[in-house]
Amino acid sequence: MIEVRELTKRYAGRTVLDGISATFAKGEVVALVGPSGGGKSTLLRCLNGLESFDGGSVRVGGCALEPGRGRVHASQLWDIRRRVGFVFQQWYLFAHRTALGNVIEAPVHVKGQSAKEATERARELLAKVGMSHREGAYPAEMSGGEQQRVAIARALAMEPEALLMDEPTSALDPERVGDLVALLERLRDEGLTMVTVTHEMRFAQALASRVLVLHGGHIIEEGKPNDVLAHPQHERTRAFLGLGHAAAN
Ligand SMILES: Nc1ncnc2c1ncn2[C@@H]1O[C@H](COP(=O)(O)OP(=O)(O)OP(=O)(O)O)[C@@H](O)[C@H]1O
Ligand SMILES: [Mg+2]
User: Which residues partner with 30 through β-bridges?
Assistant: First the structure.
């Protein structure tokens, strides 16, 4: 469903993604883990055209993103963004809209759905994420975990084929992490492809079918969560997981 070939990304001449190749199959749930600064967020943003890149290619379904911002066709970008939803670390809900208003915004303004149709669907999605009782609340009136569930409902409102999430558990207490795992498990069982950056290994273990370890712009290790997280082969992964002596960066 998403295919990355030899992806290279530089910031001011500094290489932060160094020829990454990876395939994310339909229905697969992949966790991106690794030390801070390794390139996880950058890779995730390249997957739906939020970030331009310098070399290689990204394909989503039949759409291809090419290096360089100028060469990305706006229509292709829209197509990719429609297929691939993104949940940011800080959720970025529209502050002046209620939970319901946030979820209907894109279907009405981007997809051209009628307000009635979008509202019906939004109510189903808010029920799915356990937020029906708060549909009239503004973001400032919601807890972090509640805002995050609304952000997931908002991303799902565009009926994406894949959902990308950047550290979705970062502001959640352990109980809310459990709730999120249950929600994402349901989405996984419905066949949604998910790629999530996380620094919570239990979260990766509970949800992912595959773990990729990013370090210094390279995928240094990948495999099933139980293998990679319990028996890492790479010295840097061992250090990152606190299983060995810290290797030099
Ligand atoms: N806009 C930018 N301009 C310049 N350098 C950047 C920019 N964004 C990220 N970087 C650099 O790119 C590298 C990869 O950053 P990225 O945010 O992808 O890391 P990460 O793996 O998500 O880290 P973390 O776990 O801390 O979120 C880092 O060295 C970072 O400083
Ligand atoms: Mg990051």
Answer: 195, 210
**What integer pLDDT is reported at residue 71 of this predicted model?**
53
* Ligand 1 atom, smallest distance to 39 CA: 18
Tell me the average pLDDT of the chain: 90
User: By alpha-carbon position, which residue is closest to atom 10 of ligand 1?
Assistant: 11
What superfamily would CATH give domain 2-89+149-240? P-loop containing nucleotide triphosphate hydrolases (3.40.50.300)
pTM of the shown model: 0.90
198 lines ligand 1 (CB under 6 A): no
Query: DSSP character for 168?
Result: T
Which of ligand 1's atoms lies nearest the C-alpha of 89? 27
Q: How far is CA 12 from CA 77, 114, 249, in A?
A: 24, 44, 21
Q: What is the mean pLDDT of residues 77-100?
A: 87
The average pLDDT across 125-152 equals 92
How many whole angstroms from 109 Cα to the centroid of ligand 2?
A: 29
In the predicted model, is pLDDT for residue 122 greater than 90? yes
Give the closest residue (by CA) to ligand 1 atom 1.
Answer: 11
Mean pLDDT over residues 35-52, rounded? 92
17 bridge partner residues: 9
Domain ranges of the chain: 2-89+149-240
State in Å: Cα 110 to ligand 2 middle: 28
SS3 171: coil
